[in-house]
Amino acid sequence: MDVAVEIQDALIRRLGADRYALWFNDQVRLQFAGDALTVTAENEFAVARLRKRLLGDLKAAAGEVLGAGVSVRLQVAAEEPTTAADGDASADDGSAIGGAAEDAAASDGDAAVGREPLGGEGAGRRAGRQRALRSTAGGDGSGLSTLGTLASSAHGRGGAKRGAGAAKNAAGRGGAAARFGRGARSASAKPEHPLRMVSADSSEESPAESTTPRSPLAGASAGTFSVGDCNRLAFTATRMVIEEPGSVSPLFFWGPAGTGKTHLLAAIRNELRRRHQLRRVVMLSAEQFTNDFTGAVRGSGLPGFRRRYRDVDALLIDDVQFVGGKRATLRELLYTVDSLLRGRCQLAFTADRPPLDLEGLNEELAGRMAGGMVCALRPLDRATRRGVLQSMVERTGTEASAEVLDRLADELAGDARILSGAVHHLHTLGQMIGRPATWEELQQSAPELISAGRPAVNLGDIQKAVCDMFGLPSGSLRSRGQQRAVSQPRMLAMYLARQYTRAAYSEIGDYFGNRSHSTVIAATKRVENWIADSAPVQRGSSTLQTRQAIEAIENLLRTG
After folding, report:
1. How do beta strands 373-376 and 536-539 pair?
2. In this structure, what are the phi and psi dihedrals at residue 198, rounded to the nearest 5 degrees?
3. pLDDT (tens digit, 9 = 90+) per residue, 466-504?
4. Is 250 helix (H, G, I), strand (E, B) or coil?
5. Quick check: 12 and 20 in contact, CB under 8 A?
6. Of 185, 193, 147, which is closest to residue 167 (Cα–Cα)?
7. What pTM value is reported for the model?
8. What confidence tier does 77 reach under pLDDT thresholds 50, 70, 90?
9. Domains of the chain by range and CATH?
10. Half-sphere exposure of 347 (CA within 13 A, CB side)
11. DSSP conformational letter for 83
12. Backbone phi and psi for residue 315, each to the nearest 5 degrees, phi listed first
């Protein structure tokens, strides 16, 4: 039944509450056996309409909840299942709840929070069924057999076998919750649902494999992540969470685009489901959370919304900077985080900045997010870029020489998406000419791709990147200060100015504090000696090799 609630929620997010109510009712039943989801409707006409208009949405919702490898089949009640043909599956116009702006929810403000769900008599009937279910099931799980009886009678077909399957699933979820130090949740706490889900007996024949396209991150795992100095801390924290859920919570990843934040979040989701058999692991973007909350405020009801996001084993939210400034959503997210922290659930977030630096985030929520483990992911350094390229060519079956991969690692920015685009182009080019492409052929075929690794920069860009790298105030490189913490970064900036701009020595000297051209020449030569001798440069209380510092600054210049 937990899985049924998740699939309904996924469908509501895709279709919207009104459209969902139009298509799905008590006559539509879902059954899960093996790796297949069977949708049963009352007659052939209803099945045909579902197949034609909503098969794509059903597949997407099932894949979102159950992961890859789940096939969707439609059948008429009391008849043998018919395989869903992909050929006539034209997914209809399904979009997430919340087409209205967040301001519509924020205008309700405090009044929205705690509002009873809308729904008239239908909501009353559901509440009555829920009270009846609670009265027959004990809080310690003793009512699971009664729950199985109710589930089997609701389905009509399958009888006691399906009821026992539902009870077995609910008991299994209680054991998963106990691993987090919580008591097993009683399955009776779930209200009866229009989309009922039962587990069929294992003796039933498993349907054919699904042809639903896999999500790009469906196979993400710790083993498919390329580790380097730029992301080693974040990777270690991810492994800790995978091995012991709840040990590091909240876990917060931050960094620029293309550094692997979403990959790590998906790896946590997949491993918690696969290794620990946790079914209620929810991963979504902050925009989806906001849209769902807006839809709940406008009609579908806050109790159902809270049940979706608070009665979980793990909640993973991507791009949390999206909720900045959205007052009502921030309050609801704060209460959700507090509820899950009290239950010792696993929480994980990603953003483009540290939690305390996110604009529009209230202090309470930022403090909760910073109270666990905050991990920075820097732009991919040269060694990590090379590892990512090697992994991608092996995974896609692309034939490429070591020379081409080395040049790509040297020229491209520290963004994994740009690297992926280069590998796909290399693969297609090789297919076209019938052999592995050379570096010159790749340059001629995709000059715009290569030029993305060499963006035009000016002296101001270099100053900003160096200050960001060393944590210096803006403008400190143009001051007259001679402290080592400022003079070393200033010399690096002068060296990079000669490498990346056409500015003369005198122009560079004027920009960095009205210094003479001879000072810039001396600084450039000194940095070259540092590189040759692998000399360290000071960065706060730690040190870096000069080459590492320059690579980090160059990545900041490439990614902005």
Report:
1. unpaired
2. -130, 155
3. 998 888 888 889 887 778 888 999 999 999 998 888 889
4. coil
5. yes
6. 147
7. 0.54
8. confident
9. 2-189 (3.30.300.180), 222-376 (3.40.50.300), 382-451 (1.10.8.60), 459-559 (1.10.1750.10)
10. 27
11. P
12. -125, 120
